[in-house]
Queue: 2 jobs
Job 1
Amino acid sequence: MTTPFGQIGVQDVLDIAVVAFLIYQAYLLVVGTRAVNVVRGILVFAGVWVAAQLLGLTTLSFLLGRAGTVGIFALLVLFQPELRAALERVGRPRGRDASASGAALQDLARAMERLAERKTGALIAIERRTPLGEYAETGVNIDALVSVPFLEALFARNAPLHDGGIILQGARVIAAGCLFPLQAADGTYRRYGTRHRAAIGLSELTDAVVLVVSEERGSMRIALAGRLGPDLNGTELREQLRELVYDYPVGRPAAPVKAAPPEPADAAEPEDGGPNGQAAPEARAERRPEPRKEQT
Ligand SMILES: Nc1ncnc2c1ncn2[C@@H]1O[C@H](COP(=O)(O)OP(=O)(O)OP(=O)(O)O)[C@@H](O)[C@H]1O
């Protein structure tokens, strides 16, 4: 085919399609994770470098060029988890059985309710786009379908794996007794216990949806994008799980992780109110939940 840019053959089209596909996959990998800020930084850096070259600022463009060479190696180190994630993703089977996801959602929510009723502490991370393999390695590998009795048995007080968190991949539990990164003790959530801070910490570093049942209060909460949501009842929990995890087909970017789960309707202030008197999602996300110790 002849175009203003010369001859374009089937190979060129294939070449462009593959590169576009790879760029899209890279985008899916970083969107919703903290890596997206690093990508923004790189784009700004590249922009300044190009501008320096165009304006003939030789010293600046020389320095930025040298820094860029070193930066490539730094990026390999910085993006090591994402690169590893990409390779893991390539090898992972695709597709998601909708009925299995629906059953897992119901079983998970029911198990959370039962654990909360009995005030049995639980910590459950649900993998989305960021693979949680490195956290799964800190615990015991399991490959079992999510079910109410199984989850209850895992977190039962004297069970060998009740300490730590479990990791879910779709409808399967892949690891139990895992250590999650603790959220820094100097932040908003410093007065929370370690279970809640581990949930917040993991959600801060990955796009996982992390569920917590408090042993002390018997409450159910979701940590997302470094924020801890409010207490949820069973219906709210199911809605959140449906929205955040089980409705997301493979290949579509994960749910936006900036917004924390909404505050309950009775906590919404009138000035934030939308048509239903509920806070707008962004406004709700900014509101900090009350520290646990003060609530008891
Ligand atoms: N880094 C971690 N990763 C995973 N689980 C952890 C981690 N740190 C603590 N836990 C879990 O949290 C439990 C201790 O919870 P702790 O009482 O300190 O937290 P909490 O936030 O007050 O929760 P609760 O309201 O259930 O008491 C531990 O027994 C362990 O199961």
Job 2
Amino acid sequence: MSSLSSSTHCRSYSSSACPASSSCNYGHHRTAISSISLKQLLPRKVSVQSNTKARPNVVPIKDGAVAATVASIENETPSNKLGDGLLSITLPEEFKDTASFDINKDKSTVSITVVGASGDLAKKKIFPALFALYYEDCLPEHFTIFGYARSKMTDAELRNMISRTLTCRIDKRENCDEKMDQFLNRCFYHSGQYDSQNNFAELDKKLKEHEGGRISNRLFYLSIPPNIFTAAVRCASLSASSANGWTRVIVEKPFGRDSESSAALTDALKQYLEEDQIFRIDHYLGKELVENLSVLRFSNLIFEPLWSRQYIRSVQLIFSEDFGTEGRGGYFDNYGIIRDIMQNHLLQILALFAMETPVSLDAEDIRNEKVKVLRSMRPLQLEDVIIGQYKSHTKGGVSYPGYTDDKTVPKDSLTPTFAAAALFIDNARWDGVPFLMKAGKALHNKRAEIRVQFRHVPGNLYNRNFGTDLDQATNELVIRVQPDEAIYLKINNKVPGLGMRLDRSNLNLLYAARYSKEIPDAYERLLLDAVEGERRLFIRSDELDAAWALFTPVLKELEEKAIIPEYYPYGSRGPVGAHYLAARHNVRWCDLGLEQ
Ligand SMILES: NC(=O)C1=CN([C@@H]2O[C@H](COP(=O)(O)OP(=O)(O)OC[C@H]3O[C@@H](n4cnc5c(N)ncnc54)[C@H](OP(=O)(O)O)[C@@H]3O)[C@@H](O)[C@H]2O)C=CC1
Ligand SMILES: O=C1O[C@H](COP(=O)(O)O)[C@@H](O)[C@H](O)[C@H]1O
């Protein structure tokens, strides 16, 4: 298997265009992988994010052989307790064009420990994503995967459990079984308590055996309920962090349930970790069309000039699922749809949509712009929210349960399973533009999309051809995140013929028609980024604070006033109150027409 250094299809530093058919990604990294081509990084001074303790081993390689030591190392800025740092290196003159740069290629290893390995998310998403990365040769040459949980399991039992959820992509099936066996052979299990330093010390011992004396880089994925995050981080950090490489921790949401609990969680984690070791995951940021949002905006001249209050009338962020909380009611009842979807997934999309152009594609530059937008927003007001809860419904002889029919949900629960909200960004670009959010479970379809409604054409020559409903004639840009990923623009055109009848048509980029390649799951992208130390798609603590500041007051008010949700039937389009909310802001939901 080739190592990260040779698997340039996973990340490319080249600025030249990749062929559309290739699986290569554009890296935004300063750099985090073990090999970079100097040809792509002129001038010869390069920054390398690496293990600072590995400094004596940093050697440039010429024509595949170790040739010389580096000329100088500057700006050594270890950025955390565990030696994850940044080196700026100048190469000797003779390596001007030809050298490639290798940092401990054969001397380092990555161990990925899935904490909570027996759980739903681990089985459904994390192990399959790791396998997909392995299949694509995106994991480093030396890697080991450990499952950690309280359940008693042997390595063989873990492998058996994982194997049930591994699949190969439709377009990549070559040697699938063989690859699966190879992957499973790199997976191991350790049973332990989440709050036991001893149990994590046992894990540490096993990890060391697998690392075989190489520089050890360790990634812990906390796929456990939030009440045990801190205990697990404490034990992992004190007993199982790397002694000579980096240690990173991926934390799953929920990151608290309001500003105070979120800040307390951050403080608790920071007792054991530096901010740049914490990778707060929001899997929506790993979705292909969300990742494409910045490309659409900043690499197409036609969109950016229109991206403001001058041309945009409303922006709508819509999430719907056609199933209820099935199986997760216990978790959900403590959070509700606003915390589960709006405060994180939809708000993250909003921030990427509305931010100013970042200075660069560097993680900190992008996150700085996102924070600025979030901090320019008005905290959500009670009159700008409506909430709903699904009730049972029988259709075609089939009975669908209501939210409170779930045995893990209290019968008198007022937790919203649906919400619609109007948010505002009080800055020069977006002043007065309603950003409408709508999220719900047990609705009539499963969809996530961004809908940009443009203003009416002033003095429209063709008004009379549209009739009275001018809204039917406004342009609309739709970014469909899922399913059937697509970007389409609704335009007006003349119906061919001798008359003058106007029609609406879509200029449509449907991904499945344009690309034969299967789109990677969000977790693949995010796991690869975490291994590579790329933080762009993870939530920084100040972003999280700003996000909670927008929703905490209204969440408290809803709970203190015990606001009763509007009930809607399972499988419907949700409560009618959502329409009144939009109407109060002089807009209509764009997802309700017959042709969408
Ligand atoms: N499932 C999903 O689709 C999503 C999940 N998440 C988040 O990811 C994390 C993991 O989710 P998920 O896999 O569904 O969670 P689970 O409820 O399946 O929990 C994962 C594992 O944690 C252990 N565990 C469960 N409850 C407790 C407890 N009370 N005390 C100690 N250990 C416990 C169990 O392992 P054992 O008993 O073997 O120790 C379990 O297998 C959570 O933070 C969740 O909010 C986020 C987005 C989506
Ligand atoms: O984070 C969550 O997301 C899922 C929806 O994710 P998707 O990738 O399938 O769209 C949602 O069902 C869950 O309630 C929420 O916690």
